[in-house]
Amino acid sequence: MLCSLYIKNFALIQELTVAFNPGLTIITGETGAGKSILVGALNLVLGERASSDLVRSGTTKAVIEATLNNRHSEKIEHLLSAAKIDTATELILRRELSSSGQSRCFINDTPCTASLLKHVGEELIDLHGQHDHQLLLHADTHETLLDEFALATEEVAAYKTTRSSLQGLLQQLRSLNNEAATIRDKKEMLNFQLHELNSVELKSDENESIETEITLLENAETLFTLSTALNELLYESDHSIYSSITAALHTLEKLAAIDKRFDIHVEETRTATSIVDELSRFTRSYASDIDFNPSRLDTLRERQLQLQRLCKKYQRSLAELIELKNELEAKSALEENLEEELSRIGEKITIKKAELSHRATVLSNKRQEAAMRLERAIQEQLAKLGIPHATFIISIAHEAHKEGDISINGTTFTAFPGGYDKIEFLISTNPGEKPKPLVKVASGGEISRVMLAMKSALAESAKLPILIFDEIDTGISGRVAEAVGKSLRKLSRLHQIIAITHLPQIAAMADLHLSVKKSLQNNRTVTEVTPLDQHSRLHAIASLISGEQMSASSLTLAAELVEAARE
Which of 423, 422, 412, 421 is nearest to 360 (CA)? Predict the structure, then answer.
């Protein structure tokens, strides 16, 4: 609900705050009093293009601020979340326009773009006036409105879920085909590389083991000479280290027998004896195991050269060559299993397309049944609103496509995001004229009545925003004006409505009546908006009947209109 509208230094308005109520708010005033200024201010705060000419002369900045209670749609929540704007119990839209032409936009005191302000505004307020700021004129909203009227939420959700699953399978199929095509194109190279890599029997860390073994074989004679000499020094010679340590141990044992302070040194020397003995045994064994094998050395060098050439050719390390071999084997296996995998996914796609076609048919049938009811309801409303010969048609078309995902009676169709239907509202307001899209209906007043008829028919099912009518009474009077007023009042029980009118029959239906007047203050023209009480409201309605020179009869008639509106 629009709670209030604050305007400062905008056109003829110096500063004012207009409070709104639920239900039907009627705005009246003489021609040129400034009613259109209110509409212009609303348009500006809804993100429409701004002009510095609208800033009140002698001031530097105009401010328009609309406060709405926080009943956000999911779309608004998404828009605000994406822009990192906090939500609160109230939603405040603000537009500031400087005399230099610069414009600033805010939502809940957070700066935002005019585009975001416009998107949020379109979800909140549907303003019908001279300009095409009309939600229902956009063909892309017709499908949603028809689905809401048809109560087809579950069918739409089921269709979208199935379509999403099908798209996932089709993406899998495309990816598999692309990969398989790449493998086929490079099959000869793949087989050659795989054969080459398999033929050398690559082993992890082989480079290091080969290098270690080559070092040992190249130095076999040196290793034998040194290890033999070490063994001589440790054990075999007459004055070996082992003999010397053993003799020292015997002497220490004699000393320890006399002085216990030598005990610790006895143990250390025994340990040293054991270490020398163990080292001597190892060197003897090591020397005996040394391999003097020139043939093995040649073989290892050839293997090392082979691996080096392979790594250089592929510009990869040995570990990376092993990874490449595994990848090539996987691709080779994929090609071997390709037909089986394609067949499996193909079967799933066939089943999913059949399911999608069924869901699309169920949804389309429900839409077509609801479309006939909605057509009748809107034509009945139009007749009440003074367009008795109107023809309203809901066009439900389908786009045949040879590669479509939906098959109906042997014909394939394009699967759109919301079904296989292309929905558009068409109308003819005069006998003999071919129905055309709503956006091509020329008369502003006619458009407003068409919108009113549509919204009256859709009121209970559609999630319509706040409705504002600027030209609802153009070209009507008498019985039709009364019908329009009753329709507005009935619709306002479900949606907040604000209407600007010159007709007493419509003004009498108001829950809140606002009067717009122009006055001269300090030699400057100022527009003011005043909420009317019961007494002043009767005078305002009477002035709509008889002009400024109101009579007793016009006041009586005004009272009768107000009384009749309560019935």
Answer: 421
Burial of 18 (0-12, 13-18, 19+ CB in 10 A): buried
Q: How many CB atoms lie within 10 A of CB 42?
A: 25
Read off the pLDDT band of 266 (50, 70, 90): very high
Tell me if residue 77 falls in helix, strand or coil.
helix
pTM, rounded to two decimals = 0.61
Q: What does 155-186 look like in DSSP terms, one character per residue?
A: HHHHHHHHHHHHHHHHHHHHHHHHHHHHHHHT
Q: Which residues of 382-391 are buried (b: 16+ CB within 10 A; e: fewer)?
A: bebbbbeebb
Domains, the chain, in order of start with CATH, read: 1-130+470-527 (3.40.50.300), 190-335 (no CATH)
Please return the burial class of 81, using the count of CB atoms within 10 Å of its CB with bins 0-12, 13-18 and 19+: exposed
Distance in angstroms (rounded) separating the CA atoms of residues 401 and 294? 76
CA distance 113 to 96: 12
By mean pLDDT, which of 26-40, 374-388, 402-416 is the weakest?
26-40
- CA-CA distance, 552 to 122, in Å (whole number)? 44
> CA separation (Å) from 140 to 26, 92, 93, 224, 424?
31, 28, 26, 92, 8
The label of the residue with tokens 């293009």 reads 49
pLDDT tens-digit series, residues 336-369? 677 788 889 999 999 999 999 999 999 999 999 9
